[in-house]
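User: Let's play a game. I give you a shape written as tokens, and you guess the letters that built it. Ready? Here's round one.
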């Protein structure tokens, strides 16, 4: 096993005991049911929010193009027609118009024609041809989020005409929430279906990874624990009004190696059945008297993201080692059996949580205090890129460029780290030698040689 410490490496065995969830593709079938559940989250797919459904519903969806143009999408039910945006009607001016009957004097001056020769530009301009792919028709859905500007903004270049955001519980036994952004196609009779790959119809079509997709969902009385994202530039935000919570997340679709069976996610011989660009989110909750990963008192604003969905886990906390462990997994090879699958992992830890877990009073100490390790079964060479920083009250850890199949990310407090001495721990004394006076400030201040404490 190889362990990477922000660029360095040493041999190390994996730490046992880290719990993880099964394939996202099978809706986390291994998640254990909560004991004494008091909250009952709807198990079927949630509708778009309306006057009759204000909780457990999808409130809004938008997409932002690479040029920064944010487009709010509208919900169009299956069988319905997308209506154009209404424009204001101008008021008709009924005032009487008085005709001007004054005489116009014609100008009879001679106009001299310019008989110089004008050379036309006959060069050929080649307009690039854009071929929009044909997609297969997948399962029927209740509608789509789309816009009248979908085509004019170039959002149809991959063949799909809208998005279906499927939000529901991860399975019928738990209240944890699984949210999946899926491409859709619409027939001439306005019937909406999931868009699948034409030559590989068991898998959905690729989402456009040049887009940033933002989804807002009303989650009722759910208390957030940890948000796990499948997408790049993934962010999450929570708000609560009158004890009812809203979750908003955004990100860009990422290439996800999908396994045909769980054994493909172990070792260095597994081959993916497909690589599909997806955007997904899993919200592990803190209701029902349980913590998302066994640590009480955290903010619920922690986030992790990866494209290794075989074994993507919530953070696992080891209280003895003061150590977080995250797990992700994917087949080692792409569908061609030769190309290697690469991955990324992102962890966002609020500084308030870092203070509770590691005693970091000063969030800026995280860069020097925390030890970040990526553990894999192969030598990653020079592909690995690791960064750690503090922004907007959160510790952000990014690691990318490692190989699958089953890497682990560990975050722990360095054993030899000591916080910088603060002024709160210091005191000041006055020292004199004759007419010379010196003030000494230190944790344990003493007078210089020859001086006496006043």
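Assistant: Ready! My guess for every position:
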């Amino acid at each position: 096993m190889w362990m990477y410490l922000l660029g360095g490496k040493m041999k190390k065995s994996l730490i046992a005991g880290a719990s993880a969830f099964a394939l996202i593709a099978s809706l986390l079938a291994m998640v254990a049911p909560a004991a004494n559940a008091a909250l009952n989250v709807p198990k079927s797919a949630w509708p778009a929010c309306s006057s009759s459904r204000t909780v457990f519903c999808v409130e809004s969806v938008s997409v932002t193009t690479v040029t920064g143009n944010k487009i709010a999408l509208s919900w169009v039910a299956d069988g319905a027609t997308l209506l154009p945006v209404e424009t204001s009607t101008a008021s008709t001016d009924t005032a009487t118009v008085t005709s001007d009957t004054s005489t116009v004097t014609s100008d009879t001056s001679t106009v001299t024609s310019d008989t110089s020769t004008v050379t036309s530009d006959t060069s050929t301009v080649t307009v690039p041809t854009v071929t929009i792919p044909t997609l297969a028709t997948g399962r029927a859905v209740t509608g789509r989020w789309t816009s009248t500007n979908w085509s004019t903004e170039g959002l149809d270049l991959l063949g799909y005409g809208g998005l279906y955001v499927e939000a529901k519980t991860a399975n019928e036994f738990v209240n944890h929430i699984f949210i999946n952004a899926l491409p859709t196609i619409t027939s001439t009779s306005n019937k909406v279906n999931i868009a699948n790959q034409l030559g590989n119809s068991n898998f959905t079509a690729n989402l456009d990874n040049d887009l940033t997709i933002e989804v807002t969902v009303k989650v009722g009385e759910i208390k957030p624990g940890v948000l796990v994202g499948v997408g790049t530039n993934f962010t999450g935000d929570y708000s609560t009004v009158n004890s009812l919570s809203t979750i908003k997340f955004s990100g860009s679709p990422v290439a996800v190696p999908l396994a045909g069976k769980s054994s493909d996610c172990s070792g260095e011989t597994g081959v993916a059945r497909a690589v599909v660009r997806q955007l997904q989110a899993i919200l592990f909750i803190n209701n029902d008297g349980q913590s998302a990963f066994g640590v009480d008192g955290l903010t619920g604003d922690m986030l992790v993201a990866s494209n290794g969905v075989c074994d993507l886990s919530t953070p696992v906390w080891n209280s003895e080692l003061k150590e977080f462990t995250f797990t992700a997994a994917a087949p080692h090879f792409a569908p061609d059996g030769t190309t290697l699958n690469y991955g990324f992992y992102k962890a966002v830890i609020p500084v308030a949580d870092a203070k509770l877990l590691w005693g970091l009073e000063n969030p800026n100490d995280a860069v020097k205090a925390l030890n970040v390790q990526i553990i894999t079964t192969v030598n990653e060479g020079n592909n690995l890129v690791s960064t750690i920083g503090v922004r907007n009250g959160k510790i952000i850890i990014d690691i990318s460029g490692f190989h699958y199949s089953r890497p682990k990310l560990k975050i722990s407090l360095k054993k030899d780290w000591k916080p910088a001495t603060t002024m709160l721990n210091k005191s000041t004394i006055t020292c004199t030698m004759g007419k010379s006076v010196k003030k000494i400030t230190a944790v344990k201040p003493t007078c210089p040689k020859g001086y006496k404490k006043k």
